Amino acid sequence: MKILLEIGMEEIPARFLKPALNDIEKYIKKEFESQRIKFETLKTFGTPRRLVLLVDGVSEKQEDLDIVNTGPAKEVAYDVNGELTRAGVGFAKSQGIDPTDLEILETPKGEYIAVRKFVEGKDTKELLSGLLKNLITGLTFPKSMKWSDLSMKFARPVQWFLAMADDELVEFEIEGIKSSLNSKGHRFFGEEFEVTSIEEYFTKLRENNVIVDIEERKQMIIDMIKEKCTKTGEQVLIEPDLLDEVTNLIEYPYPIVGTFNSEFLEVPQEVLIISMQVHQRYFPILDSQGKLLPKFVVIRNGITSSEHVRKGNEKVLSARLSDARFFYQEDQKKSLEEFVDKLSTVVFQKDLGTIAQKISRSKKLAEYMSEKLALRDSKEDIMRTIHLAKADLVSNMIGEKEFTKLQGFMGADYALKAGEKEVVSKGIEEHYYPRYQGDKLPQGIEGVIAGICDRMDTLVGCFGIGMIPSGSKDPFALRRAALAIVNIILNSKLVISLEELTSKMLDILEEDNVLKRPKKDVLKDLMEFFKQRAINVFADHGHRKDVIGAVLSIDCDVLLEASEKIETLEKVSKEEGFNDLVLLLKRVGNISKDHHEKAISTDLLVEDAEKELHKFYVDLDSKTELNLQTKSYEEFFRNILAGKNVINRFFDSVMVMDKDQSLKNNRLSLLKSLNEIFNRVAKLNLIEEK
């Protein structure tokens, strides 16, 4: 059996479409499972005007159900005479059966009274009305609305429901809107129509100029742009997120090429591109070298070109670009220092002060980092970068909220035009990188240090005043800031302690009198916060989760060293015998976990195998100190691996839990001391057995 549901409505915002379809899919899968209804395939489709569900291979009826309900134990349910007690009678009544229908059930815990029930599955069609009705009324959106005098809430006013099971109508009614076999085509290039089968529904949608499949619409846009919108030497800049948004704004795509005055090209092309993409949802046209041409593509929700649509969009874009040019020209009339001075009036956060205070704190942390990382030759440029990094926030271009995505880029452009060094200009732009997951990372040391200092001030400051992310609440994007710091440190190969860096930032914030929590608590919380982000970063780099957990559970302070430890442990763990060693190490850890004494008496070593293990321990202890000093992690792991046979012989030959308490405790102390060495670099007992 096939099931089709279409929810027809006024056009919903593009960002609502995919989440709504995902919710529909999740609901149906969950509901079918709970209702014992099997199906083969499930697909969702959507346009701004309709949400569509298609389920194929649906079973004609629910699965039958055999239920066994267990009651009290037999000795509780029956007295010594074999008569039902009040407990037994009460159970029978609660199950709605005669006491004679009770049976005795054998369980691992003993005998219990029980009742067996058979529930015959209902026809699926009997359940569909309520199921689909609940699906529709249960949908939620980021913003919902009411309309007319109805109590129903939805993203936009609902206009119709089409519901079918095979070729039959599924009847239900919500707020006076009855399900039917009628649907509507494209608002301007389609008509209302009736269907007699599910296959006919999809055919008539297409005939009425609705491409209901999102991926098909998206591909049509790409293909039609290539076919209709470019000449030799031209390319259309198709940004994936914008393509998704435009796809979800239309029911049938038709690309139209528009133009704008080439005089606007005196403004940096990034400004013009942002204006087209963000404000107008246009696709810019570039030449083969990536230089912007005075042309763009607008996707019309229609089936033909339109001169009226083209001219209207050109007019609107011209007004936008005029604003951009005006802002840009006005900004050129002021110096960067004038912008910097104005930052003392811009509040970053009420408890953390102004942007100017934030810059001052970032400079102090940069002084510390420059010293730690021996960046004396770059220090002047780093400090200048931080001084100017936020200047563009009060420029016309950014401050007017029209082009906020160009933060950093505008600052870099203005810095170059003001005669600043190229590395400073680049650093201003790069200190915002990465702006989102997967974005590029800063390459120049100026942007690297400025970016870390800026984020550390935000991160430590927010934790210091108690603004810690919880659940989905993270207004200052602190998770993203911590992820960025971890990625930048690893990518730039900075050998620096996260704990020392955080402690220094706490000292700086304390000098500014903004901390509201004890420094030790903030430090503890932040190191755990960094650890969780580091786990994600190393996992994204393709490392094994068990190896990451083993290493970072011991130390996550110097990320570059942690990375080396993870890579080395992964390499060694692939070698023959390592899995057997892990089993032995877990045994060592488990048997000694409750023992706390580590003093070992050589006089109490009586068995050859334990003497051999003690010698291995002494040698390993001295080698480990040298390995850790020289950061020879592979040699450290190989030294442990070399003791596999020694450890094995010990467990085969020696009774650890000897009746003689002194022998027992001495052996446990030996194992305890060994286990501590094993865990100096990584908790090897966390490695999964292969």
From TrEMBL:
Give the reaction(s) catalysed: tRNA(Gly) + glycine + ATP = glycyl-tRNA(Gly) + AMP + diphosphate
Biological process terms in GO annotation: arginyl-tRNA aminoacylation; glycyl-tRNA aminoacylation
Under the cellular component aspect of Gene Ontology, which terms does the record hold? cytosol
What GO MF terms are annotated?
arginine-tRNA ligase activity; ATP binding; glycine-tRNA ligase activity
Its main localization is cytoplasm
What are the UniProt keywords, alphabetically? Aminoacyl-tRNA synthetase, ATP-binding, Cytoplasm, Ligase, Nucleotide-binding, Protein biosynthesis
Q: What Pfam families would the database entry show?
A: DALR_1, tRNA_synt_2f
| InterPro entries (alphabetical) | DALR_anticod-bd, Gly-tRNA-synth_bsu, Gly-tRNA-synth_heterodimer
EC number, as in UniProt:
6.1.1.14
Report domain DALR anticodon binding positions: 587-680
Subcellular localization = Cytoplasm
State whether keyword ATP-binding applies. Answer: yes
What assembly does the database describe for this protein? Tetramer of two alpha and two beta subunits.
Q: Which NCBIfam families match?
A: glyS
Q: Which family does it belong to?
A: Belongs to the class-II aminoacyl-tRNA synthetase family.
What is the name of the protein in this document? Answer: Glycine--tRNA ligase beta subunit
Organism of origin is Ilyobacter polytropus (strain ATCC 51220 / DSM 2926 / LMG 16218 / CuHBu1)
Q: What is the lineage of its organism?
A: Bacteria, Fusobacteriati, Fusobacteriota, Fusobacteriia, Fusobacteriales
Instruction: Please name the gene that encodes this protein.
Output: glyS
